Amino acid sequence: MIPQGIDSIGWMQQLAGRLDHLKSRAEITSALDDVEFLLDALDPELQEPANQLVEALRRKLEQARS
After folding, report:
1. How does DSSP classify residue 14?
2. pTM (2 decimals)?
């Protein structure tokens, strides 16, 4: 879970930068849950990048299941 008061944009950039390092289904699922949680609170102009990150995490999760 993302702590209160954290820079959500910076957090998403950091997550996107380490996307390739997420290997386990649990790590990927946790990151996906966090980004989906953020979507409700994000400024509408930032929702598209967040949605792109969600899609990347979902693809990664599908690969982890294969």
Report:
1. H
2. 0.84
